[in-house]
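Section 5: illustrative case.
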């Protein structure tokens, strides 16, 4: 059969939520990953409900990103991090800061902009690798990460090189974590204005 555009599915989800709200029911929706991150349904449903005079709010959950930092044992505060949806990273003129961690979400959909497919192709992943190779060497270590969704499961933490990405099994929940490629460097002009030297910073 014909594949339905995901935008239509999202619209139907919003409609179903609002239908129940309009009936006067107390409606609670649970979203995977995080209710507000890459979650247009939650944002749209809340906005519509509020516009119609209903009380609606979003409550945070333990996000997929929070699980990632905990499972990998990395404190993103040490060098910072950036976070992009993989296809958006490809289609727009983003320039990553290679001194910080880079997260690419929904990597299994990289380059899939029609919202009708549920996986990317080796060719599209090769384009992503070539794109990333502007800033990262092909031998740069990266991690394919999938959070555990059940208590008895273990997270997937698969270390590969960037060039191996097109040939790695990816799932809908796969995230690509790219560690820094170079060390932080001091802004000496600001240090001078602050009256401190690099040696004073532990």
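Designed sequence:
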């Amino acid at each position: 059969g014909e594949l339905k555009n995901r935008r239509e599915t999202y619209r139907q989800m919003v409609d179903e939520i609002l239908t129940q709200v309009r009936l006067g029911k107390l409606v609670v929706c649970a979203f995977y990953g995080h209710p507000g991150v890459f979650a247009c349904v939650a944002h749209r449903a809340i906005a519509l409900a509020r516009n119609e005079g209903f009380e609606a709010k979003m409550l945070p959950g333990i996000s997929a990103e929070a699980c990632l930092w905990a499972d990998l044992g990395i404190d993103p505060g040490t060098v910072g991090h950036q976070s992009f949806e993989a296809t958006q990273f490809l289609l727009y003129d983003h320039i990553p800061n290679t001194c910080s961690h880079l997260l690419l979400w929904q990597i299994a959909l990289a380059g899939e902009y029609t919202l009708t497919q549920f996986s990317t192709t080796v060719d599209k992943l090769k384009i992503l690798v070539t794109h990333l190779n502007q800033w990262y060497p092909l031998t740069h270590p990266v991690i394919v990460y999938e959070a555990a969704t059940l208590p008895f499961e273990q997270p997937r933490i698969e270390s590969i090189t960037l060039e191996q990405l097109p040939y790695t099994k990816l799932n809908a929940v796969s995230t690509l974590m790219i560690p820094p490629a170079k060390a932080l460097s001091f802004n000496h002009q600001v240090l001078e204005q602050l009256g401190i030297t690099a040696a004073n910073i532990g």
